[in-house]
Design goal:
alpha/beta, Rossmann fold, 5-stranded parallel β-sheet, two-stranded antiparallel sheet, 17 helices
């Protein structure tokens, strides 16, 4: 009788595992996005385990300001963004835990942009953060964090947990690319035409208040947990305030976060206060008030790369056979961006 019970139990377990695998695959297929959120999030997991020097977690100002293949060409460092458009700061701890399972020895840069009030982030937008992550307990915890912070309903919680609920109607439009989505193979190097072509003068947008204001409760809780996790796990972490426009309210929140981070003695790179040192020009280096264009991105990439090399002593990876895909990424990326670079920028790469 006992053997029969064990056999039936094993059959149930095997069935549930099989169902979960198939369900996860179908859900993955139906997401169907091949855009930059897919390239930045899913592309990160294509990197061999413990092969990256550094990982940059954050919202879109991370991947519009860090040009990974060009940093590799210039300095021989391997750093990728693990990012997506509108990624909320409260997701940083969960994403850090997910990333460290793949890149346990990396230095982690965490952008402190992406602050919201409650109810400001739609479920549709939250999908950009969660859809391309492997199914795991940490992904489930991330979804819970988002649902609790932004007060999503139970139905919305399950929609994030199982994207098939949102995308099931796509069966009617499935094509081959849904089943085999290609990566750009540029290591997250951004190639948007807006990023390459557009320039906007944002000189009048900045707010430089030094005032502080308490963070929204759910953001304060997330910050405390993130800092405690980094301390307890001895994470090599650098916090970054990206160069972008902020209104007075948001600047006050960032000032508060910087104060909290300093209490833990973690390094902070404030691209706004370092604006002139980086060499940024608010008339030529942005394509809108939140994002640098290719010209501003090269300056920030240079600045961050030199900081990381000076402080963490990364070895030069250029020429190593195990990093041949980085050489290929550079060759592919430079062919795309070369027509948009100035002579001075091309000389910088030599």
């Amino acid at each position: 009788m006992k053997k029969v019970y064990i056999f039936k139990t094993m059959k149930v377990i095997v069935f549930l595992l099989g169902f979960y695998v198939q369900f996860s695959y179908v859900s993955h297929v139906l997401v169907g996005d091949t855009g930059y959120n897919f390239q930045q999030s899913a592309g990160f997991f294509e990197e061999p385990k413990d092969s990256l020097d550094a990982v940059y977690i954050g919202a879109s100002p991370t991947f519009t300001s860090w040009v990974a293949p060009l940093a590799y060409k210039k300095y021989g460092i391997t750093m990728r963004t693990f990012a997506n458009n509108a990624q909320p700061f409260i997701s940083a701890e969960n994403l850090l835990k997910i990333a460290r399972k793949r890149q346990s020895n990396a230095v982690y840069l965490i952008a402190i942009n992406g602050l919201y009030e409650k109810n400001e982030l739609s479920v549709e937008t939250a999908h950009r953060t969660t859809d391309f992550l492997p199914h795991s307990l940490e992904r489930a915890f991330l979804i819970y964090t988002l649902c609790h912070g932004f007060q999503y309903s139970l139905d919305e919680y399950f929609e994030l947990l199982f994207p098939i609920i949102r995308y099931h109607s796509r069966w009617n439009s499935l094509s081959a690319y849904f089943f085999h989505r290609d990566y750009e193979r540029t290591k997250g190097g951004f190639t948007s035409s807006t990023f390459l072509n557009e320039v906007e003068n944002i000189a009048d947008y900045y707010c430089a208040t030094t005032d502080r204001e308490p963070l929204p409760g759910f953001t304060q809780d997330a910050l405390v947990k993130l800092l405690a996790y980094c301390k307890n796990e001895n994470v090599k972490v650098v916090f970054v305030l990206s160069a972008q426009y902020r209104n007075a309210q948001t600047v006050k929140w960032y000032n508060t976060i910087i104060d909290e981070v300093k209490k833990y003695n973690y390094p902070i790179i404030n691209e706004m206060s370092d604006f002139d040192e980086i060499g940024l020009d608010d008339k030529t280096d942005f394509y809108n008030d939140c994002h640098t264009n290719i010209h501003g991105a090269l300056k920030i990439t240079d600045y961050l790369a030199q900081y990381l090399i000076d402080n963490y002593g990364f070895e030069d990876k250029r020429g190593g056979t195990e990093y041949a895909d980085w050489d290929e990424a550079y060759e592919k990326y430079i062919e795309i961006v070369r027509p948009y670079l100035t002579e001075e920028e091309l000389e910088w790469l030599q």
